[in-house]
Amino acid sequence: MSEPRTLFDKIWQSHVVVDRDDGYTLLYVDRHLMHDGSAAGFARLRAKGLKLRRPDLALATPDHYNSTAGRTLADIPDPQHRHLVEQMRENTQQTGVRLFFIDDERQGIAHVVSPEQGLTQPGVTLVCGDSHTATHGAVGALAFGIGSSEVTHVMATQCLWQRKPKTMRVKVEGTLGAGVTAKDVILAIIARIGAAGGVGHVIEYAGSAIRGLSIEGRLTVCNMSIEAGARAGMVAPDDTTYAYLHGRPLAPQGAAWDRALAYWRSLPTDAGAQFDREVTLDAAAIVPMLTWGTSPEDAVAITDRVPDPSSAPDAAKRDAMKGSLEYMGLVPGTPMDSIAVDRVFIGSCTNSRIEDLRAAATVVRGRKAVIPSWVVAGSGLVKRQAEAEGLDKVFLEAGLQWREPGCSMCVGMNGDTGLPGQRIASTSNRNFVGRQGRGVRTHLVSPAMAAAAAVTGRFTDVRRLTSGG
Known about the structure:
Aconitase, domain 3; five-stranded parallel β-sheet; 15 helices; 19 strands
């Protein structure tokens, strides 16, 4: 009998082309996502006189540089960014890559579009020149971000050299309380293990609370695996996964679906399989979370206070906390729910799917935003569905802006930025210094918590505003 294997090991082993003596493995790549930063890869390919090896396995969509104020090239304010988006159309036309351009309703954030289309599937290896490619592990794929030179290598060979990472299982057991979402779960995990807790590992998320999440919730959890330092994040496929993928445009159809399903059912981690590290969290102990500092690990419950650097375990951590608090303009001991907010952003590859928008709309319905607030759907199809459900009217009647799809204010390289000193409640994934604009103070929250901040003007325990409170 063969030795029990993890989900990761099964996918890794089935994609090995060759193992090298120096510890590197050449992996076959099943899917390659491209965004508007892919122009350099195409340029290097042409310079080397090489062709794109498998255009049929790629999908391209602009997301980082396109404007969320409109869906035309003219709406992109920066000429260089506009040129990069134009190049994307030219490069994909020349090579035969499937493109969802800015005038296509299917356009959106790559990590929203690919699962939505059914291109992201259990058991595949998937790469993209973007760190949050880990998102796709939510359906049982092995997905990770790659660098610019690696993008060119995949374009030319459909393979990639990698060192095999270690494995880590994070189990969240029990039932999540009212008002507690997938975003709160991953913030609690990162607060527990630290921003470097997953370095050198692929994390498999497991446990009854993870199984209880929708695919959209699992996408949120896996998305922020990189914020824990991990190479990738994964959730084993199950009936929730299969139901989500069934009938999607790029998912297998007919007899091919039956064959794929049989394979997918063989992927979950075997009983008795060993992980290099295991961590368990109690779901019932997780409450609505938010960050206070400049690292995703700087997360506490909304019921807590700004931490005091004097409680740090060592001098290095103490100095880091002092620096973060100075940048964030916070005083130790301040109740988190007394901190005023200047602006709200609901969007990003972490939290811009229909489930996220529904959660935010539930909070703002019948209320009025008291601070500037944006809602940015993750794709044109998400936007269309939200409008069919009347969510756009809920947001607009509450005074929130309803924008076009794209990365928007998450990354702040498209004209969508905050002002120096502004404090933003953001559903994105990074609260680094300057991430949303020079001097901007970013606090990571769930869509429901962001919506609560929009209608109260401060960080507020969303449970006080909902029937679950």
